[in-house]
Amino acid sequence: MKSIAALSIVLTLSAGALLAEPASTPAGNVMPAPAQARWTGGRLAFDPSFTAVVQGADDGRVRGALDRMRRLWELRTGLTLARSEAAYAAPAAGVKPTLVIECQALAPVVPKVGEDETYTLDVTADQAVLRAPTTTGALRGLATLTQMLQADATGWMLPTAEIKDAPRFAWRGLLMDPCRHWLPVEVIKRNIDGMALAKLNVLHFHLTEDQGFRIESKAFPKLHELGSDGLYYTQEQIRDIVAYAAARGIRVMPEFDVPGHATTWVVAYPEFASAPGPYQINRRPGVHDPVLDPTNEELYPMLQKFFAEMATLFPDEYIHIGGDENNGKHWKANAKIQEFIRANNLKDNPGLHAYFNRKLQVIVSGLGKKMMGWNEILHPNLPAGTVVHYWMGATGLVDATRMGFGAVLSRGFYLDHQLPAATMYANDPVPANTKLTPEQQARVLGGEACMWAEWVTEETVDSRIWPRAAVVAERLWSPREVNDVPDMYRRLALMNARLDEQGLRHEMNRDMMLRRFGDGVSMADARRVREAADLFEAGTLGVRFKQNPTVTQATPLTGFADCTRADSAAGRRFAADVEAVLFGDAATTRAALTEALGGWRQLGQDLAAGRIAPASPRVRELATLGEQLDAVAAIGLEAVAALDKGAAAGWSEAQLAALVKLGDPRLGVTLPIVKPVRLLVAAAGQAAARPTLPAADWRRQVEKAATPPAPKK
Amino acid sequence: MKSIAALSIVLTLSAGALLAEPASTPAGNVMPAPAQARWTGGRLAFDPSFTAVVQGADDGRVRGALDRMRRLWELRTGLTLARSEAAYAAPAAGVKPTLVIECQALAPVVPKVGEDETYTLDVTADQAVLRAPTTTGALRGLATLTQMLQADATGWMLPTAEIKDAPRFAWRGLLMDPCRHWLPVEVIKRNIDGMALAKLNVLHFHLTEDQGFRIESKAFPKLHELGSDGLYYTQEQIRDIVAYAAARGIRVMPEFDVPGHATTWVVAYPEFASAPGPYQINRRPGVHDPVLDPTNEELYPMLQKFFAEMATLFPDEYIHIGGDENNGKHWKANAKIQEFIRANNLKDNPGLHAYFNRKLQVIVSGLGKKMMGWNEILHPNLPAGTVVHYWMGATGLVDATRMGFGAVLSRGFYLDHQLPAATMYANDPVPANTKLTPEQQARVLGGEACMWAEWVTEETVDSRIWPRAAVVAERLWSPREVNDVPDMYRRLALMNARLDEQGLRHEMNRDMMLRRFGDGVSMADARRVREAADLFEAGTLGVRFKQNPTVTQATPLTGFADCTRADSAAGRRFAADVEAVLFGDAATTRAALTEALGGWRQLGQDLAAGRIAPASPRVRELATLGEQLDAVAAIGLEAVAALDKGAAAGWSEAQLAALVKLGDPRLGVTLPIVKPVRLLVAAAGQAAARPTLPAADWRRQVEKAATPPAPKK
Question: Of A482, A515, A635, B362, which cross-links A478 as Cys (Cβ 3.0–4.6 Å)?
Answer without folding.
Answer: A482
